[in-house]
Amino acid sequence: MGERFLRQVWRFLAMACLSPSVLALEAHVDGLDHEPAKGNVITYLEAIEGERYSRNRLAAVVRRRSAEALRVYGYYEPQFAVELEGDPVDRVNVTIDPGPRVTVTELDIGVSGDAENDDTFQEALAGFPLQEGDPLEHAPYDRLRNRLSALALERGYFDSQYRQRRMEIRPWEASARLYLLLDSGPRYRFGEVNYQGSHIDEDRLRRMQPFDTETPYLAGDLATFNQRLGQSEWFSSISVRPRIRQGEQLAIEEPSSRWWEEAVLDDDPAAAQPRRHRLSAQALISANDISPRQSHDVPIDVRLAPADRHQFETAIGYATDVGPRVRFSWDQPWINSDGDSLDHDLFLSAPEQRLTGEYVMPLEDPLRDSYRLQYGFRQRDSEDTNSLEAAVELARRWEFDNGWTQSLYFRTLYEDFTQADQEDQVLLYYPGISWSRTRTRNPTFPSWGDRQRLAIEYSDSTWGSDATFLRATLDSQWIRMVGDDLRLVGRTGVGAIDTDDFDKIPPSLRFFTGGDRSIRGYSYESLAPRNDEGELRGGQHMFTASAEVQRRITGDWWGAAFTDTGNAFDSWWPDTLNTGAGLGVRWISPVGPIRLDIAHPFDDEDDSWRIHFAIGPEF
């Protein structure tokens, strides 16, 4: 008895340790030419665990599963010959005579109610692939049924119900009758929006709503509203929910009486009356919901919690252009009920230190329209440039439906600089306008994306500026994937200054090229016109271009091959362009992409190779 028990335990443990692939059957099917049905039979059979059944029982299970797999393709009277191999069984051979295939002889699908005039429902019906006379398949019918149900919820047909929803299969006639009739009822509309917990003025929040009261309900509009509230960065938690009331308790019992009220006087006429239940206020509301609604409005409840008023962030990085770098930020996503925000940013590296801030005042469309007041201080000491600058800028910003952002601004710039053998202090006042757009999929390491920016600025001594100039810059970058393992990156930049006062143009507005994000193989901002002593002066014009091919090596590791070209110069077009090319490695690390490049400059005899290293996203 003990040995038998131990054998049973051992067998149980052995089976428990076997992998599913060992227990699953290997299935082979003959006699069936319809490939989707054949594949479905194999899928059904390979899910069977042969060890669970005796041979006779297993053969019956194989027949039943095969019949289920064939039925969804319209084969309702198949015949099977089953052969089992192995002991225990590990392979099953099934020869199938599928018999006649059921065809659709009657098709009655449609919608009634308000959805009858809804184009989305009509498109779903028009996309139904089966017609009378076609072989029956269950999947299209099931998909349409689920699609209509989903549309009813998404588009506010909350009283919808199927008047008919059935498939009549007559295997002896090889015929099928399909019925799917949805009565949508009325379409509900957006009702009053109720805000709770908001510290921002409700009028400003209502301007962010993508819907108006009494417009047809659409679940997608609620998702858009939720997204917009999140993009504002005013809130730490957001809940946007429709309120569809349901019938609850209709009546409540009389409260239990006190003992002295239990006495019934014989001459009290009320005592002889039957005891009645009272209706609560909630019961009256619920009872009204059970009867047909007079109004088909859906109130929206928005529950919000304020974001932290002060948010701090620290970042540490490294790039060969600037060496180690540290960034501190102090953000105030809201400072009053209008949703105004204030951000401060401190950047520190060996060649450059800067402190910047931005005050944002949202306007009629808080996410797209705003006034922005920016300030900044910057100290630079790099190559032949030493400058201290202070700037203030007032901008009006618009974001359009196509993703482009337009900014109209007026900037005041004071700069005390030494550039090569030139020293000066300038005060400039100049307006400008810019257009920009950034699109990405997976911003950390984009599989697709592009970034464009065009800016035009003008200064004139007529209004007290120390220099007259017209300055324009264009930057463009693209990323595209070819398949899953090949990535293409392209970049170009163009700049020009038209002026007769170039000596009054500060280094921050002149053009320099070279470095990690410009022309690899050359040191940071080392390419520009030079004076007679060989010191950098900066250029009036600039052109750069780059092409890079990246190939996945394994997992998050990519190899890269690239070539960069360009220069900064005094007159358009340059006599020569400086070109560099090389190889690199990309690793998508948990802290962001890490790039390591080795580049060779073809136009610099003193610097044969240069290593470029950077951490951070490409856009």
Q: Would you kindly provide a written description of the structure presented here, covering whatever features stand out?
A:
With 619 residues, the protein is α+β, with helices and mostly antiparallel strands. It has 9 helices and 25 strands. The strands form 4 sheets. Strands 10-11-12-13-14-15-16-17-18-19-20-21-22-23-24-25 form a 16-stranded antiparallel β-sheet, with no helix packed on it. It has a 3-stranded mixed β-sheet with strand order 1-3-2, with helices on one face. It has a 3-stranded mixed β-sheet with strand order 4-6-5, with helices on one face. A hairpin with a 6-residue loop joins strand 17 and strand 18.
Key terms:
single chain, 619 residues, alpha+beta, Ubiquitin-like (UB roll), 16-stranded antiparallel beta sheet, three-stranded mixed beta sheet, 9 helices
Low-confidence stretches: 1-22, 246-292
Beta-strand residue fraction: 35-45%
Mean pLDDT: 87
Category from helices, strands and their pairing:
alpha+beta
Question: Whole-Å distance between the termini?
Answer: 74 Å
Overall geometric form: extended
DSSP summary, beta strand count? 25
CATH architecture descriptor text of the domain at 439-615 = Beta Barrel
Biggest pleated sheet: 16 strands, antiparallel
CATH C-level category of the domain at 439-615: Mainly Beta
CATH domain topology of the domain at 439-615: Porin
- Fraction of helical residues: 10-25%
Q: Total number of helical segments?
A: 9
Give me the CATH superfamily of the domain at 439-615.
membrane protein fhac: a member of the omp85/tpsb transporter family
Domain Bacterial surface antigen (D15): 325-619
Keywords: Cell outer membrane, Membrane, Signal, Transmembrane, Transmembrane beta strand
Subcellular location: Cell outer membrane
Pfam family, one: POTRA_TamA_1
